[in-house]
Structures are given as C-alpha cells and as structure tokens.
Write a structure and sequence with these properties.
Length: 305
C-alpha cells in the first residue's frame, strides 16, 4: 500500500478561525453520509443483494487491481496485490530476487555477476554447470513446466517471453556465489505458442530462514533477457509442504534440509509470509511422480500486461 503524506505548508490559521469551518464541514459530511446510506440501500434492494471487493498493491507487484471482483471462494480468496479478471486468473506478486540472482543487479567476489550474458544460458536442462565445469548439482529430479499468461486478458498465453529460472542446490548453495566455481541450476527458456517453457532440474532444499523455493524472472523477449534488460516480473515459487517432508527424509541426498525445514513455515517466511491464500496457491506448483522416478511439476505465472 502506498501512503501519501499531506504537507500543507500554507496552513497557518488559528483555532478561533478554524473552528466554525470544522463544524460546518462535519455537518456537511454527516448529511452526505446519510444520503449515501439511502442510495446504497436502494441499490442493494434493486440488485437482490451481493458483495464485491477491490484490491490494492501491498507487496510491489507489477500491477495494481483497479477492478471489482466477485466474492471469492474459500480456496481462491481475493488478493490484495494482484490483478484479477472474470476468469479468476491472477498476476503473480513481485518478490525479491534475493542476494544470488546473477542477473547483473549485484556483485559476486567483487565483480558483477551476470549469467544472462554468457553463451549457453539458454537451455532447458539446467542440472549441470555450463561455464567452467560440467558438475551435476544432484538431487531429486523435477521436470518443471511453467505457463506464462496475461492476467489482464483472461489468462491468454504469452508467447515469446523469456523465463530465467534459478535456485539453490541440495546443500543450500547458489552457483556463482556460495558455489563460486559452478553455474548449475540456472537457465533461460522462451515461451512457445501456448505460453509454456519446460526446465529439467532438481527439487530445491530448505536452507536457513527460507522455505524451499525456485526463483524466476520474466522478460518480454529473449533479447531483453540476454541483453541485460530489466525483467517485467521477478518472483518465486514455493514447494508443497507434504512433498518437502517426503523428499527431505533422504538425508543423504539433502543432508541438512530436513532439520532446517522443521523450523520454517510459510507464514514466517520473509518472502511468502505476507501473501494471501490465492497468491500462495498460484505460487505453488502441482507435482506428480515419486522420489525414485522423479516428479513432473506445473505452475501458471500471471503477468498484468
């Protein structure tokens, strides 16, 4: 929510002069409220009752809802930070890129880190490093398909958009940062006619203070993504709690994730903690599969174009 400060530096009247004005203003407002109440009652009676809700931007999402939406169901509550349409599609909230984006917005080891400018970043399989080594990050296999849609046009697919995906390895390290010689678990794909991209990667861990998550940035074109342009959306995907419990039981593959995960929650997470139920539902991929065979995951990413 944006707060406005009213700094009226020209006001210098005394109380004796202002008091009659205040009394007149109060009387006028009471009259207006009475007429508004009468009008509202007549409108409800004429329409047979009903309710609506409007939304406002509180977390820095790319768009603010200026429309009125129908009363939500318990499983899809109205958001306070996203744009909605009659189809129920919502725009994902903007989230922090965190300290390890490698997108040219911060530095690593004293120099600007930007994997987006390096040949080879455009790839679907992001399990291995591609710059100076070919190390495989390891973990439980996930084939993740993301569908990018226009939240202002009834979820119409957005073709030609570039999606940059990155996340921590199974030990909670990020390539090019806490794993400085590696470049795994980072990649860019371009949406097809259905607005879809697919990445082959691994399930992310829990690490100190954070719920398991994927990071992503959306660019309006591949040229913008690989040319150092700003993303139209930066956000994150959160992992389903039950699946985290199942996967982190393997403490050989995920050595510290289980103990850390037992101490975190979505409500206390510093990224997802202030999101609504509808936003969390949008940000949580649907998974099918098994630990041994790997998982197939899908998620929809809404952008207010």
């Amino acid at each position: 929510m944006t707060y406005q400060h009213d700094d009226n530096s020209d006001h210098g009247h005394g109380m004796a002069e202002d008091l009659p004005r205040f009394n007149a203003l109060i009387a006028r407002r009471r009259a207006l409220q009475w007429f508004a109440g009468v009008g509202t009652a007549a409108l409800v009676a004429g329409c047979g009752g009903g309710s609506g809700s409007s939304s406002s931007d509180t977390t820095g999402s790319t768009s603010t809802d200026t429309t009125t939406t129908a009363t939500p169901t318990p499983t899809a509550t109205a958001t306070t930070t996203t744009t909605t349409t009659s189809s129920g599609c919502i725009a994902d909230p903007s989230e922090t890129a965190g300290p390890y984006p490698a997108d040219g917005t911060n530095s690593a080891s004293g120099s600007t880190s930007n994997a987006l400018l390096i040949s080879g970043i455009v790839r679907s399989d992001i399990r291995k490093s591609f710059i100076s080594t070919t190390t495989d990050a390891g973990g439980v296999l996930v084939t993740l398909t993301l569908t990018v849609v226009n939240a202002n046009a009834a979820c119409a697919p957005l073709a030609g958009y570039a999606v940059y995906l990155w996340h921590a390895d199974r030990q909670g390290h990020y390539s090019l940062y806490s794993a400085p010689t590696e470049s795994y678990l980072r990649g860019v794909q371009v949406t097809d006619a259905n607005g879809q991209v697919t990445f082959t990667t691994y399930f992310p861990p829990a690490y100190d203070g954070r719920w398991p998550h994927y990071h992503f940035e959306i660019f309006s074109s591949l040229a913008n993504a690989t040319g150092g342009k700003y993303a139209v959306l930066t956000s994150q995907l959160c992992m389903p709690a039950a699946l985290c419990t199942t996967i982190f039981a393997d403490t050989t593959t995920y050595p510290s994730a289980q103990s850390i995960f037992s101490k975190v929650s979505l409500s206390t997470d510093n990224v997802f903690g202030d999101n609504t139920a509808a936003q969390i539902a949008q940000q949580t991929p649907t998974f099918t599969g098994s630990v041994s065979a790997g998982y197939v995951a899908t998620a929809t990413i809404g952008i207010a174009v």
